[in-house]
Design goal:
Elements lengths: L20 H8 L3 E5 L2 E4 L1 H20 L3 E2 L5 E3 H7 L1 H4 L6 E3 L5 E4 L4 H11 L8 E10 L14 E11 L2 H21 L4 E5 L10 E7 L5 E6 L5 E3 L20 E4 L6 H8 L7 E8 L2 E8 L6 H8 L4 E3 L2 H8 L14 E5 H4 L4 E4 L5 E6 L1 H4 L4 E3 L17 E16 L1 H5 L3 E3 L5 E3 L1 E8 H11 L1 E2 L2 E2 L10 E5 L4 H16 L4 E4 L5 H11 L3 E5 L1 H6 L2 E5 L5 E4 L1 H16 L2
Parallel strand pairs: 3-7, 15-17, 17-20, 27-28, 27-29
Antiparallel strand pairs: 1-2, 4-6, 5-6, 7-8, 8-24, 9-10, 10-21, 11-12, 11-21, 13-19, 14-15, 14-16, 18-19, 21-24, 22-23, 25-26, 29-30, 30-31
Helix pairs in contact: 1-13, 2-6, 2-13
This protein binds adenosine-5'-triphosphate and magnesium ion.
Length: 569
């Protein structure tokens, strides 16, 4: 492919509205273009990278015994009503009515459709196990689409669904997918970790997220330095604290704290450390206000609060809204006599006494005890784990890293098959519900995540297996001999099966080098002055800038070898 004939609309300037590296670089390199919020066109090079990921995904899914199909994107609402998700899914599900007034939606995921296929077409235990997958465009009307392909409204996903006769068989299917996912992300050349996505609540080991490690990741993962525990912090259970030795505190005391509203200033004023102060944070949970009690030095883990309350939406309530409901100015809110629903982190329950807001402007209370003085409807693990907590599995010490979720595998059990009455006939003639699993990979997000993990100031550094092209060939200068040699080398590279972008443009060397770096093509081959002088070309590796002078034929052989080595991971 000749650069002069390639649609690669690179940009010189950084696009103004791109907040993260992958978004910025994909726009600049001419890989994607935004159509509207969260919806992008994939231009040829962007698509080429996506196709590489898809190819690896397909090979590994097939190898694991899954079979590809393709389901419709438009889905009838009644299927979603059957599963009970038409109400539950919330506004991420884009709903519309067709010309016959039939309610429909755009598929954000396909459990309903696949379960419908299974109940109509899988009849006997002899038909099982089955694992079916597709690579398809999904639509989720994300509240805040952002970061380019990282969180789009329209995006490409590989989703697979397994059907088994019982739990034990479903676990085998699950482990196969776990292994396949490890191969997929290894083959993509990514540094990743499989982490528990649900530790404890339903047994622990049957939901994993695959995280690409990158400083810019939206997720934080926590891992143990001693055992193999690793989890999304959203789900990492904090070990319950040992209750205080002396559970009966002295009488409550009202203390003046004029103008002190923040944890730090209240503590400084009272001469206490933040672990002695309990903060009262008010959330809007669906349509109710709920106060969450937490030690002053801790952070709320909103996912835990959401799960505890069983709500779909959770967000911090605004100051005015809180004042309207309680009559208390922010900063002085506290759990004693509070007129809101109240839940407490387990750590607060284990404190014999603490300081808290007095529900009165300019006052706090000392010697508050949760059981004695407050009416909490629940005590639970509601805070975010920290590196100073012990490992939830073994008590060892923890580390943390930022990650991007690129895949998620989940043992579903019989939830969908029961709701939608999807059964098969068992060995003993009985009708049983399918035991299901589902397995997603954000194909377009993988490309963005790869860039987040692999880039430098000059541009993208693609891992070989997912690079849109593996070699960029530059001809420098107007010299006849150079042009002829570059043309020849181009033909040799093509003949060797190497995917090469030939920069034959009549441009300055500096600009060609810049573009080559921006595009992130793993190997750059330059035919220039040294060819005229010594008959050699230069191979330079994008990742570390290492370069080598070689005769053209040797260059082809070396490239072939190096590329193959990286594809065979
Ligand atoms: P997230 O927590 O990031 O919203 P999710 O839990 O909603 O992800 P799943 O429903 O498990 O995601 O979807 C499977 C995979 O699809 C995810 O692991 C992720 O890689 C990808 N994905 C999900 N939402 C998006 C999106 N809005 N844009 C791009 N990829 C996405
Ligand atoms: Mg989501």
């Amino acid at each position: 492919m000749r650069y002069s004939q390639t649609f690669l609309p690179t940009l010189k300037e950084n696009p103004a509205d791109a907040e993260v590296v992958s978004h910025r670089l994909m726009l600049r390199a001419g890989f994607i273009r935004k159509l509207t919020a969260g919806i992008y066109s994939y231009l040829p090079f962007g698509l080429a990278a996506i196709r590489k990921v898809e190819q690896i995904v397909r090979e590994e899914m097939d190898r694991a015994g899954a079979q590809e199909l393709l389901m419709p994107m438009v889905q009838p609402a009644d299927l979603w009503q059957e599963s009970g998700r038409y109400e539950k899914y919330g506004p991420e599900l884009l709903r519309f009515v067709d010309r016959h007034q039939r309610e429909s939606c755009l598929g954000p995921t396909h459990e309903e459709v696949i379960t419908d296929i299974a109940r109509k077409s899988l009849h006997s235990y002899r038909d099982l196990p089955v694992n079916l997958y597709q690579v398809q465009t999904k639509f989720r009307d994300e509240v805040r689409p952002r970061f380019g392909l990282m969180r789009g409204r329209e995006f490409i996903m590989k989703d697979a669904y397994s059907f088994d006769v019982d739990d034990a068989a479903a676990e085998v299917s699950y482990m196969k997918m776990h292994a396949a996912y490890k191969r997929i992300f290894t083959r993509c050349g990514l540094d990743f970790r499989a982490v528990q996505a649900d530790s404890g609540a339903i047994g622990g080991s049957f939901s994993h997220e695959f995280m690409v490690l990158a400083a810019t990741g939206e997720d934080t993962i926590v891992y143990c330095r001693q055992c193999d525990y690793a989890a999304n912090t959203e789900k990492a259970l904090v070990r319950a604290p040992i209750p205080a030795a002396n559970p009966v505190p002295a009488e409550m005391v009202r203390l003046e704290t004029p103008g002190k509203r923040k944890v730090a200033t209240v503590c400084a004023h009272l001469g206490i450390t933040p672990d002695r102060l309990v903060k009262t944070m008010v959330y809007r949970a669906d349509d109710q206000l709920v106060a969450v009690l937490l030690r002053g030095d801790r952070e709320v883990e909103e996912v835990k609060v959401k799960n505890l309350l069983g709500v779909a939406d959770l967000a911090l309530a605004g100051e005015e809204e809180v004042f309207a409901a309680t009559g208390v100015a922010t900063g002085y809110l506290g759990p004693v006599g509070l007129s809101l629903r109240l839940v407490a982190d387990q750590e607060v329950a284990a404190m014999d006494s603490f300081h808290a807001g007095a529900n009165e402007k300019n006052f706090h209370l000392a010697n508050v005890n949760l059981a004695r003085d407050c009416r909490a409807e629940a005590v639970a693990d509601l805070r975010r784990i920290t590196v100073d907590d012990p490992c939830p599995a073994c008590g060892g010490s923890l580390g943390m890293a930022e990650g991007i979720e690129v895949g998620h595998i989940f043992k579903l059990g019989t939830g969908y098959s029961q709701a939608m009455n999807a059964t098969f006939q068992d060995r003993d003639g009985q009708q049983r519900h399918f035991v299901m699993g589902c397995y997603g990979i954000g194909v377009s997000r993988v490309v963005a995540a790869a860039i987040e993990q692999n880039h430098d100031d000059d541009g993208i550094i693609f891992p070989v297996p997912i690079a849109p092209r593996t070699v960029i060939l530059l001809a420098l200068g107007q010299d006849e001999g150079i042009a002829t040699a570059a043309d020849e080398l181009y033909q040799q590279l093509l003949a060797a099966g190497i995917e090469v972008l030939y920069d034959d443009r009549d441009e300055r060397p500096g600009l060609k080098f810049k573009d080559a770096d921006l595009l992130g093509i793993p190997y750059r081959v330059t035919v220039g002055k040294n060819f005229t002088a010594r008959g050699t070309v230069e191979i330079r590796r994008r990742r570390d800038g290492q370069s080598q002078e070689l005769a053209p034929a040797e260059a082809v052989a070396l490239l072939q070898q190096s590329i193959q080595a990286e594809l065979n991971r």
